[in-house]
Every structure is written in structure tokens, then in C-alpha cells.
Amino acid sequence: MVGCVVAMEQLGQGDQSLAAGWGAHCTIGTLPILDHGTEEQKRRWVTPLARGEVLGAFALTEPAGGSDNRSLETRVTFEDGHVVLDGRKVFISNAGTSISYGVVALARDPDGGFVSVIVPRGTPGYSQGNPYRKIGWHALDTREQVFDHVRLPLDHVVGGAGTGLRAFLSSLDAGRISFAALSLSLAQAALDEAIAYAQQRIQFGQPISRHQAIQFKLARMAAAVESARLLTYQAAWLYDQGKPYKKQAAIAKLVASETAVSCAAEAVQIHGGYGYILDSKVARLYLDSKILEIGEGTSEIQQLVIARQLGC
Ligand SMILES: Cc1cc2nc3c(=O)[nH]c(=O)nc-3n(C[C@H](O)[C@H](O)[C@H](O)COP(=O)(O)OP(=O)(O)OC[C@H]3O[C@@H](n4cnc5c(N)ncnc54)[C@H](O)[C@@H]3O)c2cc1C
After folding, report:
1. Residue 74 domain-assigned?
2. Arithmetic mean of pLDDT over the chain
3. Measuring from each residue's beta carbon to the nearest atom of ligand 1, which residues come in under 6 Å?
4. What CATH number does residue 46 fall under?
5. Which of 36, 48, 60, 298 is most buried (CB neighbours < 10 A)?
6. Is residue 240 within 8 Å of residue 1, measured between CB atoms?
7. Which of 79, 293, 296, 300 is catalytic?
8. For the whole model, what pTM was predicted?
């Protein structure tokens, strides 16, 4: 995970959409099968994912609920040695590109438990909507997924009936560390852009970086970025050591995403009117930042997770 964070820090400074797609691929798109699949499932599905031959995707969110994953309405039934999936998912990333193999979808079983089902593209009854037009992350493929009586052999069920939610939630905890790193990368890029601009933009006869008001903005951004970095690497290190990391992952995601949003806004402010023009890098960072407080659990949900870990 520390290696993933290092890579994510670099990728995300270059392009948030690419980094977000890669992060989802490595975490929620792959870990449910890697951590909970059979050896045969790992050979069949994880091998091409790990080689980068196909892109991984996970479908949890539905029209009726994203935060409240227990409200899922997508259903499976079991008949004649097959699993049959019916339902609709919204906002699903990575499932509709030319290298997407399909998606792992979370659904309710007849007993009210949860199952994860691997649904390959081309399976009859599985279709996708057009890509959403988003505020940012323009290069990330995000679409609706429709499952209309999708019938698959039982070996497409991950982790066995009833363990789907556990399989997904553990991947989501890991995904939060990757999302924290994605946020950190955006915050760092915003800080770098702001420093460079402040040193060359002359107003009132001197670079604006000589004005204390600008210096204080840059100092606060730097302090926030360093805090987010330490929290993110701490969570990644705990994960790699096999120690409990749920609380730290949520704290890192909460702090890093809020840092990204505030740093992007301050970077635009330091750029003045040029920051508001879409051609500027800080404008793109600004547009890409907001989703970081929403995806993989909103800031409110991170606070719920942290509070529960505190014993509330
Ligand atoms: C670009 C993009 C890519 C995405 N990719 C994926 C993907 O690949 N796979 C996937 O499954 N999902 C994906 N999502 C969905 C994303 O995870 C959800 O949008 C997110 O979890 C929030 O769910 P929601 O949109 O249903 O909002 P809601 O759950 O309806 O929340 C609305 C608001 O209410 C707040 N709220 C909800 N419950 C509580 C509570 N108990 N206490 C306090 N506040 C609360 C939320 O914090 C939020 O502010 C993606 C979304 C976007 C926009």
C-alpha cells in the first residue's frame, strides 16, 4: 500500500482522472476478488487485472443510495446452479472503457444477505448507460449499469453467498487510503502551482509571494499538505503491517480530501483571474477536487466511521 501511495502521489499530480481510474482498478476493482475469491477466480480474473490487460470496476452505488449501502435494491436469486442478477447501479467508474472486462456488483441475496457477483461484458441482460457529464474527472469513464435478469454460473459469485458486503467493505477501507493519496497529490500540485505563480507574478512592484497575505496562504497550504501526507502514509503503513487501519484510513481520507479542496481553491485565488480560466492547471485541479470529498464515502460518512471507531 505504501508503494501504491507513492505511485498515486506522482500519477495524481499529472492527471487526476487517470489516477482515479488506476486507484479504483487497484483497490475496489481488484481486491474483492484477490482477498475473497477462490484460487480459480484469482487465476481467471485477477491475473489479467494485475497485468493491466483489463480494467477493474466495482458497482455498489444505486439510485436510492450510495452512503447507505444496506439499502441496496439489486437482487440475486439462485436457480439451476446459476446466479441471476436484477437491478441498476449508478456512478460506476471503469466499467465502460475499451479495456473494461465488466464489473463486480454487490447485491442482496434471497435471505437478505449480500453477495458480490462478477459480471463480464457481453453477458446477456447486462448493459450500460452513456458516460455522465461531470464537473471534473473528465477522462474517467463513469456510467450507469443495468442488470436485467443477468444469468451466470455460480463460480461468478465472490466469497460465497452472504459474505459480499464484508468483501466489499474491506476493499473500501483500502480504497480510502488510495483516495487519500489521490487527494494528497492534488493538494501538492495546487501548492506547487501556487508557489511558482506567486514567485513570478508582479503586483505593486514586487512578486506577490513577497506579500505577507500570500505567504500565509502558502504556509497554511504547505502545513495542510504535510499533515495529509503523514496521515496517508501512516494508514498505508498500518495496512502493510497487517495492523488495524480502518480509523486511520478514514481520518486520512477525510483530512486529505478536505485539504485538496481548500488548496485548490486557494491556488485559484492566488492565480487571480488567470486561475478562473479553464486553460490554467489550477482551474482543472479546482474542478477535479470536489469529488474527493464525495467518492469512496463522503466526508460525513468518514466522520461516522471515525466516530464508531472511537466507540460512539
Ligand atoms: C465521478 C464518480 C465516480 C464514482 N465511482 C463509483 C464507483 O466506481 N463505484 C460505486 O459503487 N460508486 C461510485 N460513485 C458513487 C459514490 O461513491 C457516491 O456518490 C457516494 O458514496 C455518495 O452516495 P450518494 O451519491 O448516493 O449520496 P447520498 O448517500 O444520497 O448522500 C447525500 C448527502 O447526504 C449525506 N449523508 C448521507 N447519509 C448520511 C448520514 N448518515 N449522516 C450524515 N450525512 C449523511 C452525504 O454525506 C451527502 O452529503 C462515484 C461517484 C461519482 C460522482
Report:
1. yes
2. 95
3. 24, 58-61, 65-67, 91-93, 134, 137, 142, 291, 294-298, 300-301, 304
4. 2.40.110.10
5. 60
6. yes
7. 296
8. 0.96
